Amino acid sequence: MPLFAANLSMMYTEVPFLERFARAAADGFVGVEYLFPYDYDARELKALLDAHGLRQALFNAPPGDWGKGERGIASLPGREAEFARAMEKALRYAAVLECETVHVMAGNIVPLMLPQRQRALFMANLALAADMAAEQGVTLVLEPINHRDMPQFFLERQDAAQAIVLELNRPNIAVQFDIYHCQITEGDVATRLKRDLPHIGHVQIAGVPDRHEPDKGEVNYPWLFAYLDELGYAGWVGCEYIPEAETSAGLGWFAPWRSKQAISR
């Protein structure tokens, strides 16, 4: 049975961020995720989680200068010290939030840098970060992102992410499998889920092609949820989609699973 986490960066934007925890809990979600927690004190966020009976499923490590288009610094040359500090900050938040999974964004393609050199730098930084995270039982996930939404993002394909995880061979590094991104870039989602399941640490969903509710578009999500059960996936399913209108009004897709949600981890 999938455990669903509402993505508070995209959902419930009708209200201020700190009010979204209550909305998610009222609608039956048992977990939340979001892009970044760093505008808020971690203790304030933990108090909201506890008050509403929610678990923190995931958040992202600091990505560099988001406003200037940076989408992670883990593969950027000359930023190694900054990346280490960013991971220290992310892990401090993870400790307070009792969050077991942190997404490390790869970053954009570096012009004139050979892809294999950028990949090697990404892997070296991930190895360092994995050692840091292992001390507090945190898993780091890397996510392939489609080039329609992020045209310059370094990591696009599932097999590329899986290859990095396999080469690093660290028990606390896995792949964040976003079905929306995978469908746009590669398709054949079910085959890739089955092939890659042993190293999938988090799943995300959205309708394709418009990134609205998962009952809109070309992907048969009820079938995929049952398939994830069949495969034995026991992690979170993050709802990283942009509601077409008011968030709660668009949760008809969630009705079959709402009453069955239970924290089992």
Q: What would your notes on this structure say?
A:
It contains nine helices and eight strands. The chain has an eight-stranded parallel barrel with strand order 1-2-3-4-5-6-7-8, surrounded by five helices. β7, α8 and β8 form a beta-alpha-beta unit. The chain is 36% helix and 14% strand. It has 265 residues and is α/β, with parallel strands linked by helices.
Parts with pLDDT < 50 across at least 5 consecutive residues: none
Strand content: 5-15%
Assign the structural class, choosing from mainly alpha, mainly beta, alpha/beta, alpha+beta, or little secondary structure: alpha/beta
How many strand elements?
8
What does the average pLDDT come to? 96
Strand order of the largest sheet: 1-2-3-4-5-6-7-8
The description of the largest β-sheet is: 8 strands, parallel, barrel
Q: What is the general shape?
A: globular
N-to-C series of helices and strands: EHEHEHEHEHEHHEHEH
Question: If helices are DSSP runs of H or I spanning 4 or more residues, what is the number of helices?
Answer: 9
Radius of gyration: 17 Å
Distance between the termini: 12 Å
The helical percent reads 25-40%
